[in-house]
Amino acid sequence: MINFAQLDKDNNGEYLKLLSAVSKLSGLFSDSAIPLINYRVAENIFCRSFGAENLSRSDTAFDAKYEGKGIGLKTFTCPSSYSTEKVAEFNSLSGELKKYQGKDLAIKLATFRNERIELANRTYGIEDSLYHIVARREKELLLFETDYSVINIEKITNIREQASSLSFEDDKHLYSFNYSKSTLFRKFDLPAAVFRLPIEIIADPYALLLELFEDKVLKPAKDKLRRGIDYIILPLYGISKKEKYVFEKSGLNQWNAGGRKRDPGEVYIPIPITIHQQFPDFFPPRDQKFSLTVPTGEVLSSKVCQENSKALMTDPNKALSDWLLRKVLLLEEGELATMDLLNELGFDSVLIKKEDNSNYSIDIMPVDAYEKFINNEDFEL
Asked: Average pLDDT in the 295-308 region?
């Protein structure tokens, strides 16, 4: 298992230095002697320092990919020998989970959790995985790695039901599920051997900022993704009577349409008319080909086509279905994509990122991402 703190120290890297610097500024946000690090900041520091691919925008099971490994990144306060932390949310499945209790609920939770890990493995070409932990204590950070394993359904035991939660174990870990928040937690034990990073929080961080930025001209950020210019989000579904549904004879299930014999790989991603209305210059003109890179690195020849440019397709069309239907959704030929399946896997839309008019990329996005995007709500990428 990789020891990232030791790896950074041996290479005189930036990771420990950046963690220390951010921790010393904790007085900007807290009066506590325990260093405060925002989880997104910790993720960005890790990816910058180790050249890892940041996966956090897709809200997938992993936060980063490093040398083929899926990395779960967590930072939390840990005053004792363990901490119980969130590992999955099932808000879109809360109605389904309410049908179960006891061991049946534990098995269902384990199944949903494992499916999301396996989805991330398929989507991003993950071969192995681990958690990298930054535990925070008074005047220090404790860094260590631990396993990122699926829940062993055959070994589920010690099931305890309470008014607000359910707890259970497998052969490795203790899990708990909060009913009202539809959130699954895992107990993280602090190992005997950890990397300790001493932290002295600056008494007056405001004075430091004034000194740092006084009379200095700084370059503005140019690498931030701009809504509708650098990226858009497309839904994999339609809406009828305020309910989401996957089109039965179009979109992901275009192969199921009538009128002529269809290839089982015939599929397209719907482009709502409002996307063209709000962002008319995002895509190339209709039927003009461009490259579309999927998360595992394959490049597909793509184009916007059909009436009102309502479809994002690939050439050959089978290339899109091989990636989205067969690899990501694990659908067999002739098997319909459904809203239930998307909810179970935890995504219902895709991110299209634009490099230039000839080069784009695609990634999966969490449930309700399209609604937040199209309504211009606060949306974190």
From this structure: 93
pLDDT, tens digit (0-9, with 9 covering 90-100), for 123-132: 999 999 999 9
Smallest CA-to-CA distance from 58 within 127, 7, 126 is with 126
| 3 state SS of 3 | coil
Residue in 350, 353, 330 with CA at minimum distance from that of residue 116:
330
Phi-psi region of 99 (alpha: psi -120 to 50; beta: other; left: phi over 0): alpha
Spatial CA neighbour of 110 closest among 142, 149, 84: 149
Q: Which secondary structure element, helix H or strand E, spans residue 122, and what is its range?
A: helix 102-124
User: How far is Cα 89 from Cα 66, in angstroms, rounded to an integer?
Assistant: 24
DSSP letter at 308 equals G
For 208-266, give the DSSP string: HHHHHHTT---PPP--SPPBTTTEEEEESSEEETTEEE--SSSGGGGGG-SSS---TT-
pLDDT tens readout for residues 178-219: 999 999 999 999 999 999 999 999 999 999 888 888 877 777
Would you tell me the crossing angle of helices 15-24 and 39-50 to the nearest 10 degrees? 150
- Beta bridge partners, 360, equal 292, 354
Mean pLDDT within 363-380: 87
Of the pLDDT bands very low, low, confident and very high (cuts 50, 70, 90), residue 56 is confident
Its pTM stands at: 0.90
The answer to whether 123 and 60 are in contact (CB under 8 A) is yes
Closest CA to 328 of 352, 306, 350, 356: 350
**Cα(311)–Cα(189) distance, rounded to whole angstroms?**
49
Separation of alpha carbons 9 and 27, rounded Å: 26
Q: Which among 122, 196, 191 has a CA at the least distance from the CA of 345?
A: 122
For residue 66, what are the contacts with CB-CB under 8 A and spacing of at least 6? 2, 50, 51, 52, 53
pLDDT tens column, 19-44: 999 999 999 999 999 999 999 999 99
- CA angle, 89 then 234 then 326, to 5°: 75
SS3 313: strand
